[in-house]
Amino acid sequence: MSIIAKSTPWKGNWIWGGSEQSPRNEWRWFRSSFVCPRDLEISAKAVLWITADSRYELYVNGTRVGRGPVRYYSTDIFYDGHEIGYLLRRGEVNTIAVQAMHFGVSNFAYLRGRGGLLAQLDAISGDQEITLAKTGADWKTFVHAGQDPAISRMSCQTAFAERIDGRQLAEDWTSTDYSDADWQQATVIGPVGMEPWVRLHPRDIPYLTEEPVLPTRVISLNRVVPYRLTAFIDAYHLMKTPGEENANQIRFCGAFATVLRLREEAEVKVVLHVGGLGIVRLGERLYTEEQLEGEPPLAHIRAQLPAGDHLLLYTVYGPEHGHSNRVGVDADQEIEWISPLEAEVGYGEPMSPFVRIGPSFTYTCIDYVDQYELFSSWETEKIRFADRISSLSSIDDLRESGYPLESVPHGLANGEDSFMPQFAKRESEAYSVPANLQRIAVASTDPGVVPLFDDGDTEFMLDFGKEWSGFLEFELEAEAGVTVDWYGIEYRKDTYVQHTFGLDNTLRYVTREGIQRYASPVRRGLRYLIVTVRGANKPVLVRDVRLVQSNYPAPEIGVFQCSDDRLGRVWDLSKHTTKLCMEDTFVDCPAYEQTFWVGDSRNEALVNYYTFGGTDIVERCLRLVPGSEFQTPLYGDQVPSAWTSVIPNWTFFWIVACREYAEHTGNRSFAAEMLPPILSTLRQYLTLLNSDDLLDMKGWNLLDWAPIDQPDDGIVTHQNVMLKKALEEAVAIAEFAGTPERGKECAEFAVRMKSAINRHLWSDERKAYLDCIHPGGRRSSVFSMQTQVMALLADVAEGERYATLNAYLTATPEGFVPIGSPFMSFFYYETLMKNGNVQWMLDDIRDNYGFMLDNDATTCWEMYGHTTMNRANENDLTRSHCHAWSAAPGYFLGAYVLGVRPAAPGWAKVVIEPSNGDLRWAKGTVPLPLSGCIDVAWEAEKGEISSLVVTAPEHTELDIRVPAACTVNIRRVKQLPESG
Question: Measured between alpha carbons, how far is 862 from 867 in angstroms, rounded to an integer?
């Protein structure tokens, strides 16, 4: 469906229900019925305009029409227009049904507003427009009875995991025949233009795809027994002040406690999956973090405890960003946990068995603000708090401690967690997979039959063949009350499972009697799906398990093949990775975060240009960035987000991406519109230059996940060279926009910064740029390839220095920090290509990306296998197994091996300059930004290109650069007029 905007005024009002403006994790159903005029023409255009805070799913007469809106800032929300004329029943009652999902908490893709739904159905019949339905007090609403809001966050970046009670679902609630007589009237909360949704904008990209993907096989079957007790605790919410309006990191000093009750003596094991864990008390014994058994995140303690009540207490300090604490308790005898304040709970909100102690100190972390005094106070209080808490050895001590002591509500901590039981298992016993269970993985009407065990639960694993991103659907036949846990992971090898620590990628579904179907509205990324059936007395039948793959509608126009099949497979990895990371914006990964990281998207945009040719998603991403100015004039590193954070390089990469997009599309008006915010943020950065004309600032001064010296304060060399480059990019944008005079100040500062970098940040002794100068003037002793690559890329080094650094690209000096991530390799390949060193790049791709292929990768990893940074467990090969910042081959193989690159704005002129390296042949297709594509096929003999075939649109000027002896064949295709 094409993008459309509303041309007439809104008549509908914002509506919601219930008494809370912004309820936590509330899914709410809305319905409205109307009679469609009998004389409405069959061909009449009928558009249902809709938006909601936070997300919606829309149904018309029982048919799901779409979901949205695209991510937004609360003040500037987007609306959708769905053409539904084909679904209307003339002369009959029609029903609009909406499932609105309000997060009630901020995250990395949503800033907390309030619950709200706005919709209006307009039809055009002849020359007349009539409104058939609009949101108002006549709409009915009902809280989704089967969805449990008391569940943990999926991650700090996203909203919530999912727990659904099928016994409470009404599958036909979207149909016209369903009776909503016992539903409440919706509450009108205000007209269009009310706060927080001050401005409404039409959707700015096409609707995302929905493509069912079935599993390929069942690869394992196990009898499992989980720990007797497991729970999550939302420590972030409980320790944070003042509330949910932001998603900033916090540091605090606090503790949680519960009472373990044993009827008989038993050995008790406690697993604590907690960030910032301090001391742990179990009964009479106190444990420090060093005394825990095992490795984080599965550190645990064991103790032999007598019958009776025993205090379990742990201190926690952060830094905390929204991940839940998880606690697992197991014993060889019956055990339960109760609240230390059990007698004081009363009849109000249901409480969990946990109490919160403190916080005695808490503060919100802002990475670009000097918070040294707060940090020092926090470290001092940590010692004092731990000392006082360590003396609490009983429940009475706890009550008399003087610290704030409150029961934790059920909604913020409870045992309905389905993530902890995935790895907190008492027993796991493998069985061969029977043929009738394998039927789950085929498109058959015959169901898969889940075998049962008398003394445990049934766990099996589905393989979807590749990584995917979308919405889980399934059909079951079962008795009532069976719990079925669905858990998505990205990697396993033999019996090893890489659990998604930091991501609760689960869905817990409790069955009703008979056949039932469920379609989840929660996006998740996975390759493997672990399914655990708990509490069944009769075999459970499973049909039609699928993941509805959903991504930006990107036709797979780009193609690359060559004489080295390994490189072709790597290109396919890059393409599939980028596809999965193109949602309503680019996202870093489809599983862990689903976040639009500004710096990542520059490289992702270039890969997309060569694999899919998408342009409006790039423009949407670039336009979102200045919207973060209300948080910081330096612009946020992920947007639209409630985490106020600055990675200066990410802002600088955004400026580069703006210039590249404007030239890629030939869009001079875009350049003119983006120039003011670009100049605005650059002026803010220039105020942070010190007297030596060097950027000297506090921030998250990141470039690569590697042990380079990139402190959060001081003069970081790679940031200085990128600011110099960003200033020059602003000059180029001003010139492209037709206002070169507006770039004069940037040009002057770029010259000054280049001189300052060479004067102060070069080491004659090491013949390289040092990584940084720390606050106080201490020069770093660390030298890294990252810093040298960025200096080359930004044209800082000249003459002998340039020649020296260029030699380092293929002969890393001893002691220099190597490149740590495929993201950094993108810039490394750019510097290699400046000198035409294709062979070295091909070998590097074969080595690093080949390692991924050898380990069954179907998408590009976030990290290389040789680094252990940014992982939950150093034995894992990477954290995220699908990360589009890593998809560099998707760009470079097309741009330099095929050799297709733009030579004029909008690709009106194209250079064809293939590079063969050690390849014998290559062929492929590169999309053009407006229409059409360029096909290239070449062969090489004796190390040189010997024949070349190019197919291109007739009006595209070609600049072909091949050896004189090469045979060139050019084919032309006609182009449709632009209006076509």
Answer: 11
